[in-house]
Specification:
Elements: H1 16-28, H2 31-80, H3 83-86, H4 90-103, E1 107-114, E2 119-122, H5 141-146, E3 150-151, E4 155-156, E5 163-173, E6 176-186, H6 187-194, E7 203-208, E8 214-217, H7 231-238, E9 243-247, E10 253-261, E11 266-273, H8 274-323, H9 335-361, H10 372-388, E12 393-403, H11 405-412, H12 414-431, E13 437-440, E14 445-453, H13 457-473, E15 480-488, H14 493-515
Antiparallel strand pairs: 1-2, 1-6, 3-5, 4-5, 5-6, 7-8, 7-11, 9-10, 10-11, 12-14, 12-15, 13-14
Helix pairs in contact: 1-8, 2-6, 2-8, 11-12, 12-13
Length: 516
């Protein structure tokens, strides 16, 4: 295709050499204007970059702290589902929980309480000791009223004087929340996640709970724990600001950004010293002045050389693109350009291989589907997105268990069984959408997580289940499948998974009764 250069009255057209020479000549004339403009641009750019860096670091720290609290919450939910808890074997639970505390440095103690506020056990007290009622500041009405997890404001443990937060989840018996299991999480655990990546000089961060009290700080972490935030920070929070100037507890002026910790209602505040920024501004001013003088002295000479080099380099690239070649062969005086292009290409390929290897390691080796851990992670992300995305979306979880799979293994051998599992994986990939999360979570057990608008999720999930049942039956050898479907909006993943599992078992039982 021929490209026709644009033409028009008054349109100046020069080659690269002429433009660079013209710019160099003009740069030597308005020296003062150039210096002022460049300085202001440099300062504005640094300010924007600084704000963006603060925002990225605050958001990353907020996600890290959410993951830490999610991890403890998952540990609590695992405890709540133990048979020894459900059967009321408190002595065994006490001993088991003590071993968990000894192995998990983040947790100071576990507590089991009933809906009347009675403490049934604490791992930091001997089993059977009479315990006082739950403190008013640590009561968890939402746990019993709505069956949701709840986190307390930070408080100081009287014996150790260390900061703690109480994270509580319900323990359901017969579908009712009868007990509450609490983990007392050390504020030092929050500090550890806050400081996973080293903070640059002049930077500081603080974590605030839902009552704007200090949970942890990046520096001198145990100081001021449990105390309210500074007046300047409180005022900014009241006004809903996310970027502003504030003071630390020590009185240091900071440029500040705030990020919310999802789900838990905490905030991460990251700041950078104003004095450090002022030093950078002065440094930028010196750089601009020196650069302006250098540009004035060397501009024209450099323009001649740069124009020659760049024109040759650009022409080589244009020619290579026109010819459709995969490799650009040039002889350039700026060797770093070619070296950088080669290095970036190599790095991109290396990163791609690394990502592929990591993804493969977390996938089922036989079917290529997600393994249980990767499925749980991706499905939880879908649920969080549906819950927090601001749309009226719902999530459906399909629990799929094969029928007749054991007979195939027994009659035809494990190789035949492996072919069946691969065939089921292909069925799931063809029967579901590309956005759906699919995984093999057990031997012959599969699961899928679907998301759709609330008024369509029931039909989407039921039609998907019908397609899967029909396609699996078509694999032959007497293999079929039973599917349990659970739909939820604000439900947690483990709740949906348990509900779908029970419905799958009920469906399997009905199928067997029909076949008798």
């Amino acid at each position: 295709m021929k490209v026709i250069p644009p033409k028009g009255p008054g349109l100046l057209r020069f080659n690269l050499f002429a433009w660079l020479l013209l710019v160099s000549l003009l740069a030597t004339l308005p020296m003062l204007t150039y210096a002022v403009f460049a300085f202001r641009s440099r300062v504005a750019e640094r300010q924007v970059q600084g704000q963006e860096a603060l925002g990225r670091r605050a958001a990353a720290s907020a996600i890290a702290i959410q993951q830490e609290l999610r991890s403890v919450e998952l540990e609590l939910r695992t405890l709540a589902q133990l048979d020894i808890v459900i059967n009321g074997d408190l002595s065994t639970l006490h001993e088991f929980a003590r071993r968990v505390v000894a192995a998990d440095p983040r947790i100071a103690a576990f507590r089991l309480a009933d809906r009347n506020g009675r403490q049934l056990l604490r791992t930091d007290e001997p089993f059977g000791k009479d315990l006082p009622p739950v403190r008013a500041s640590q009561e968890t009405p939402r746990v019993f009223a709505r069956g949701e997890s709840e986190i307390s404001p930070v408080f100081l443990d009287e014996p150790s004087r260390q900061g703690l937060v109480a994270l509580t989840v319900p323990m359901k018996v017969g579908g009712d929340s009868l007990y509450a299991i609490t983990a007392f999480v050390k504020s030092t655990a929050i500090t550890g996640r806050l400081n996973e990546a080293e903070w640059p000089p002049g930077w500081a961060a603080v974590v605030l709970d839902g009552q704007r009290r200090i949970v942890s700080r990046s520096q001198d972490s145990q100081r001021f724990v449990g105390q309210p935030s500074t007046p300047s920070l409180t005022d900014a929070l009241d006004r809903g600001l996310t970027s502003f100037r504030s003071q630390t507890k020590e009185g240091v002026e900071m440029i500040t950004r705030i990020a919310d910790v999802p789900v838990f209602g905490w905030k991460v505040v990251v700041g950078r010293s104003s004095s450090a920024i002022d030093r950078e501004v002065r440094s930028a001013l010196n750089s601009v002045l020196l650069g302006g003088l250098g540009c004035a002295a060397l501009g024209i000479a450099c323009a001649l050389y740069v124009a020659h080099v760049l024109r040759k380099r650009i022409r080589a690239v244009i020619d290579a693109v026109r010819e459709g070649g995969d490799t650009v062969h040039t002889s350039s005086a700026v060797s770093e350009i070619d070296q950088l292009a080669t290095a970036l290409t190599s790095a991109r390929k290396s990163v791609g291989r690394t990502i592929a290897a990591l993804d493969a390691a977390r996938r089922d080796a036989l079917t290529g589907l997600r393994g249980r851990a990767l499925f749980m992670q991706d499905a939880a992300a879908v649920i969080d997105t549906a819950r927090l995305g601001g749309h009226d979306d719902r999530v459906a979880l399909l629990y799929i268990d094969l029928d007749g799979f054991k007979e195939v293994n027994d009659r035809y051998g494990h190789e035949a069984g492996d072919r069946v599992l691969k065939g089921v994986a292909e069925v799931l990939l063809k029967s579901l959408r590309g956005s759906d999360v699919i995984g093999r979570i057990g031997g012959d057990e599969f699961a899928a997580c679907l998301c759709a608008p609330a008024d369509k999720i029931a039909s989407v999930s039921s039609h998907a289940a019908e397609r899967i049942v029909a396609a699996v039956a078509a694999l032959g050898n007497g293999v079929g499948c039973s599917i349990g479907v659970a739909i939820g909006g604000d439900s947690e993943l483990d709740v949906l998974l348990d509900r779908a599992d029970k419905r799958m078992l009920a469906e399997k039982k009905r199928r067997r009764m029909r076949s008798v």
